[in-house]
Amino acid sequence: MTEVAIETATRLAVWGDPVSHSRSPQLHSAAYRALGLDWSYTRRQVAAEAFSAAITGLDGSWRGLSLTMPLKEEAFRWAHTRDRAATLTGAVNTLLVNGPLRGHGFNTDIAGLVAALREGGLQESPRARILGAGATAASAILALAELGATRIDVVARRPEAVTSLRALGEEIGVAVDGSAFDASHSTVDVTIATLPSGIRLEPAISRALGDAGGALFDAAYAPWPSALAEQWTDAPRLSGIGMLLHQAVVQVRIFLHGDPLAILDDEETVVAEMRAAVMGD
Predict the structure, then answer these.
(1) 129 close to 188: Cβ distance less than 8 angstroms
(2) Does the CA dihedral 51-80-24-26 come out positive or negative?
(3) Which UniProt keywords apply (predicted)?
(4) Are the beta carbons of 264 and 256 closer than 8 angstroms?
(5) How many angstroms separate the CA atoms of 257 and 106, rounded?
(6) Which of 95, 169, 190, 275 could form a disulfide with 125 if both were Cys (CB 3.0 to 4.6 A apart)?
(7) Which of 154, 75, 149 is nearest to 108 (CA)?
(8) What is the C-alpha separation between 74 and 88, in angstroms, rounded?
(9) Above 80 in pLDDT, residue 280?
(10) Is 72 in the active site?
């Protein structure tokens, strides 16, 4: 992939609605300080219906954007070209808005989730469950497939919401089944929760899911422990902050080099600075 020139554009931001809770500014600002770059990274609340006008209004000083809900699908539609992860999931969380790769969209959530799960000791997860059937669930399916999952149970309130995830599974060779929250659940190695932060399940449902759910990875990270993590069993419970950290590392690579695989200078130190910026809160 062609490298993007780094001297012309120095503004970056995370957009979403809501976005005030995002820790991306701390992560990215720490990274650019460690790299010796005088780049600014801010946050902006942008509603889905305002996305197109907002991005059209950016001038040449803007290098790229991080996108959170509900803008990942909007960014996917706006992107001129997309990486494979974005194409498969229909979601873009990283956009280059200027330079030779202007309009290229990426999904760094999969790489971030895989790294977070491995860091948490989950090297392989052949039996897995996902709670929720939104955009993050699609990323979770790809991440679990990379960790060796061959069958994934998606627990959703609406059975029809699993249809697109089942099709994604067929495309990558993973069997995706759907079930209801109050169903009887088989035992799995890991559960990935993609439910909105603050959602509280009925205690009986949480206990049943926890008893058969293995380790819990909850994409929610503020507040922590999440309501679900508080009700889980004694199995390991991992916060979504690890996914946020590692997907941001890939974003920094993209914003600097236009390539998610381009290792940063002294990347180990950069990651340590980013981790300290959010873990110290």
Answers:
(1) yes
(2) negative
(3) Amino-acid biosynthesis, Aromatic amino acid biosynthesis
(4) yes
(5) 13
(6) 190
(7) 75
(8) 15
(9) no
(10) yes
